[in-house]
Amino acid sequence: xSERPTGAKAGTPARGSPGWWDxxxxxxxxxxxxxxxxxxxxxxxPAAPGTALDxxxxxxxxxxxxxxxxxxxxxxxxxxxxxxxxxAIAARRHVTVTWVKADALxxxxxxxxxxxxxxxxxxxxxxxxxxxxIAATTTAPGGSVLVIAHDLRNLTDGTGGPxxxxxxxxxxxxxxxxxxxxxxxxxxxxxxxxxxxxxxVRLVRDR
Length: 207
What we know:
Order of helices and strands: HHEHEHEEHEHEE
Mean pLDDT: 90
Shape: globular
Largest sheet: 7 strands, mixed
Strand order of the largest sheet: 3-2-1-4-5-7-6
Helix content: 25-40%
């Protein structure tokens, strides 16, 4: 997960910078749940394993789950604290993931992937489009881009997530030329007794 830097007081990391995320991750033993995201499981549990790229992978919960299912996974994040935690989780669960410390908007992979996952990437609209372009160009023919993000509806009807509308997604903005839409919806995600609303889109690259 990532959020781009905004202004900060002198001596403190800018909100959304790697240092800001490092501080957030260091405040708790595990920021996100240990298990994979609900929609990752829904979309990918039936899929045959291949190569996968998890951009802005955070503590690696989805990357590790994919690796457990036989995927060859690369996880990219710019938070050193998150990646250290991801490595520890992968080691405890006896799986191998290639972890890369890099910005999801500037890292340039040297291969394409059968799956590119963007899960809860917190970006403003121009940078969202940049991330989607990177994801699309990194996806192999016949492969999928899976986007899961806090939806704009969540601001008024849901719980949790960013409270800044500029960081919230809608399904319509994810479509890419050369891709077929396999799923595109604002989906309900249970959070205890409450409900969060997520953008869930899976695109399949034309062969």
